[in-house]
Amino acid sequence: MSSGGGGGGSAPSRFADYFVICGLDTETGLEPDELSALCQYIQASKARDGASPFISSTTEGENFEQTPLRRTFKSKVLARYPENVDWNPFDQDAVGMLCMPKGLAFKTQADPREPQFHAFIITREDGSRTFGFALTFYEEVTSKQICSAMQTLYHMHNAEYDVLHAPPADGRDHSGMEVGEGTPGTKLQRFNSYDISRDTLYVSKCICLITPMSFMKACRSVLEQLHQAVTSPQPPPLPLESYIYNVLYEVPLPPPGRSLKFSGVYGPIICQRPSTNELPLFDFPVKEVFELLGVENVFQLFTCALLEFQILLYSQWTNHKSVLIPLSSPLRDYQRLMTVAETITALMFPFQWQHVYVPILPASLLHFLDAPVPYLMGLHSNGLDDRSKLELPQEANLCFVDIDNHFIELPEDLPQFPNKLEFVQEVSEILMAFGIPPEGNLHCSESASKLKRLRASELVSDKRNGNIAGSPLHSYELLKENETIARLQALVKRTGVSLEKLEVRDDPSSNKDLKVQCDEEELRIYQLNIQIREVFANRFTQMFADYEVFVIQPSQDKESWFTNREQMQNFDKASFLSDQPEPYLPFLSRFLETQMFASFIDNKIMCHDDDDKDPVLRVFDSRVDKIRLLNVRTPTLRTSMYQKCTTVDEAKKAIELRLAKIDHTAVHPHLLDMKIGQGKYEPGFFPKLQSDVLSTGPASNKWTKRNAPAQWRRKDRQKQHTEHLRLDNDQREKYIQEARNMGSTIRQPKLSNLSPSVIAQTNWKFVEGLLKECRNKTKRMLVEKMGREAVELGHGEVNITGVEENTLIASLCDLLERIWSHGLQVKQGKSALWSHLLHYQENRQRKLTSGSFSTSGIFLDSERRKSDASSVMSPLRISLIQDMRHIQNIGEIKTDVGKARAWVRLSMEKKLLSRHLKQLLSEHELTKKLYKRYAFLRCDDEKEQFLYHLLSFNAVDYFCFTNVFTTILIPYHILIVPSKKLGGSMFTANPWICISGELGETQILQIPRNVLEMTFECQNLGKLTTVQIGHDNSGLYAKWLVEYVLVRNEITGHTYKFPCGRWLGKGMDDGSLERVLVGELLTSQPEVDERPCRTPPLQQSPSVIRRLVTISPNNKPKLNTGQIQESIGEAVNGIVKHFHKPEKERGSLTLLLCGECGLVSALEQAFQHGFKSPRLFKNVFIWDFLEKAQTYYETLEQNELVPEENWHMRARNFCRFITAINNTSRNIGKDGKFQMLVCLGARDHLLHHWIALLADCPITAHMYEDVALIKDHTLVNSLIRVLQTLQEFNITLETSLVKGIDI
């Protein structure tokens, strides 16, 4: 046990762990802050050399050109009490940096010197946190040596300045502070000079409390009263040591659900702590965040944080008159950064930020903005820079928040938070009840009116909830003045929306009976905080009310589960998303992939019983249970109806009760056992405290007498999310940490010992983390795509949803951007990947024009992609540059980030991503020029492994480019392959073709005679489905036997084969002049048609019987009745499955109807079974039989021999369809007509009626043998039952299938 008194048992119950003093060490003198200065000097020299600066506020070279009063000097921890405590080891470097993030500040009597308060957080590498609260004030420098040193620095600076700036006075001010008239010399004299004989020199000093919990208001009050004691003319009632001793050793943490009063130097201080069933402790003013940013920006920032984008909060020290809230010190900006960061993370309840979290980034840690991981950091600049001058290492996935200027820059493709408009309205009503405008305190009226117009238009267009008013203000006023509000409440109670709280919001301090023991402003802050937080918490409670149903509990024991954590899926995402309303999906599909959601579910899996449960989870689960009881709805039935928060009053009342009746009062400060002469007091100076009395606490007091282990247990159950978990089981803690660290091996920059070796080590961790993340992402995407996970979860159909696929590909693009941003020498453009590609393109073109470079490998790759061996379609060349040009030619993509993502999508669809990136990185000179030595892309082994992981994507088919860029123009290449054996060369007619896809179809394209290969351009057709091919029957030899047609998308390289194998010509085959062919996608390396494929095709394609090149369709192999029944069952089953998928994820229905395993083919086999052999030299087709049946029924009707009404209707329908198909102007032939009839029958749910009709028809007896399937009543009834299952589906046919028919 070290000198931290109080004993181990009392550790967690103490209000504060340390009292710290930081400032100028007069013994070591003025030391430049080397790391900070070096960072600034490098950036300044970069700027001078013409390179882009890293952070432009430093381009003036703060330590080398600025006046000595503005330079960065090292601050030190001068004293801390106690020396150390076991449960929270003192981190001297981190505390020193964060108490004074920009080092020591010097001022003269002419400068403003108000004390400034700011809070900070020390986040350890394991994610646990300690809170710091610092008050910085100015003391007169009494050391003659320091004053002389400052005077000397001024003489040197002025001499250097005159030499550098004497010739043409450019009028620039290098102080980084003032802009005005006059020469630089006079300005220096007026604003930034120091004369030892005339001026008084002041230096900053800081007093700080380090605490286990974030009682910000109480700590601020303690520090301000201590400072007041040393600046007031009268000495305090007791020596300062008494008050500091009291707060360190005698003031306990208030127990959960209780309030505590203790004494400051001049007055009582009150703090209160939420109970275990309330939202966790949060003590920062939410009001300030909404005033600074406005509701709209807060919601955008909140969404970015939930989706784990990189977030940079930016504030600058400036004296611009245009800024609404005047700033006098950077420390006020530090408090702003802290308030915004803490508020956003607190509003995430029950989720917790899992990545790098540094709300105040010290000047010496600017290199951490290079971190290729999600982060939330706060950056303070003391220049006058605007956003346009601020260059950051990576911006593709960055959310940039300029706190002072009410401005937020968002990443591309940010999805909208579910029910955002109603959510914004609910929050706005609360803000307005407290007199805060929802737009925030904008200093630009134009922006305010623009924001109002935007919101108004959004509300008008929003159709999801009919009772949204035109603006929050109107709805609030309306409800406030409405006398029938009681009736309204009763009416809407059943919907789960409560209007009661509006009455309370009218006067936030309406609870007149309670006399609270804090001032009214403080109470209003408490009330607003809890109301806003309850509304945010309610959103997640509503959205995830049924989450437990979808948690996948591990089948094995916990230890095995931890060991294999990376391989395990902990949440059934597909089923959860399928239950959600459509508008929620873009946001939710991405949110379910985040580390914070994975950690939340891991916690759920690990904590079965309530005693074991994480405190945050316990609160959330209890709220979910309440909602279930209130709503009493089916667990899986989701609704997008907005349900307002109903817990506000209860939460507010709990706080008011705690503040009205103080539960505990701590021991009062008292005289300590100090030697005579100790505790002397000198006004204006914080005294040197007596370490002997402050280094140890009392041997015992009423707080430490409690049973320590029981106290620990209680504490464990009452963890707030602002505390770090102290778990009993070290092993479990290790596993939790490993589970959390799945995506990144580094959670926090270490704020100490920043030697080059430590920076190198950190970057190595980043490299390892990126590789691990790449491995996990590729694995996850492949498992989803190949459906193994879905099968293991018990879903029969293996298919990834389009929303989820898009989410996974977007997150892969984000990862690639982070990899390409790591270790960049110079930032160019927002996308590091696209910038590298442009450099590569430029290099290649330069080499090409200079003639020093062979074209092989750039434009025409030596390893050509094979096309179908029996075709003569020239292979599509593989070229990275060509793929870039395709993207550059797409006018719809405006930004570099968009171009990089499109290029990644195209490369994935072509199965060339790994190969292209390997080629890009093979230019070693370029990589060396663009990247620092430690960059991921210069670590050869890791780079190889990374490319190997990406290679695994070639195992699956993606359509991530085709399905996203639906409106672009695409060139298509067509090749028609006629039979060489049967006179294709003599063909005299004029052929035409029409191509259809999932996104549209072409016009009829005339093919020049004797031309079998052509290219045309049209809007993206999507995946191709059918080709209609025909001719005009002109000339002497108008007969054409087409084997197949190939169509290739010239951008993605996808080639579709449309088998035909039939004649087109009068008097040939079935007399058809046009045919509808159904296509299949060829795999990348198809084998010759006749040889069996060595590997199975990657996409399901027709597999039962290939249509052979035959003169008679009756040459097909005959199937027995069992096989026919099976094929019809499979065809119908395929259609049923198709309709059970989400609408956006369905494939081609045409393939299921008319493909080679489709319904048409299966029914064709059924009708051909037992069909009597045709007469010699004449084919009889199924259509001939159907026409005879039609004639029979029409005759019956004329003779009025109709058995019953239903039968009569069916017969009439059947005849109507046959007549309509025969009367069509299209020359589709008899088999084409049969196909059309089956498709129309399926569409109108008539097939089973027609089968019953034909089975009873006397014509069947003449044309079929006795063994025929259609004569067997049992088989026919079975067939009818199967076809009846299609009745519940709304089948929509592709235009190409029913063109020319109007039924």
From TrEMBL:
Residues 970-1078 form the PLAT domain. PROSITE patterns: DENN, PLAT, RUN. GO terms for biological process: retrograde transport, endosome to Golgi. Residues 697-725 are annotated as: Disordered. GO terms for molecular function: guanyl-nucleotide exchange factor activity; small GTPase binding. The keyword Nuclease does not apply. It is found in: Membrane. Its main location: membrane. The keyword DNA damage does not apply. InterPro entries: cDENN_dom, dDENN_dom, DEN5A/B, DENN_C, PLAT/LH2_dom, PLAT/LH2_dom_sf, PLAT_RAB6IP1, RUN1_DENND5A. One of its GO terms (cellular component) is trans-Golgi network. Keywords: Guanine-nucleotide releasing factor, Membrane, Phosphoprotein, Repeat. Residues 803-966, 1150-1298 form the RUN domain. Residues 57-614 form the UDENN domain. Gene3D superfamilies: 1.20.58.900, 3.30.450.200, 3.40.50.11500, PLAT/LH2 domain. Belongs to the RAB6IP1 family. PANTHER family: DENN DOMAIN-CONTAINING PROTEIN 5A, PINSTRIPE, ISOFORM A. This is DENN domain-containing protein 5A isoform X1. The lineage of its organism: Eukaryota, Metazoa, Chordata, Craniata, Vertebrata. The gene is DENND5A.
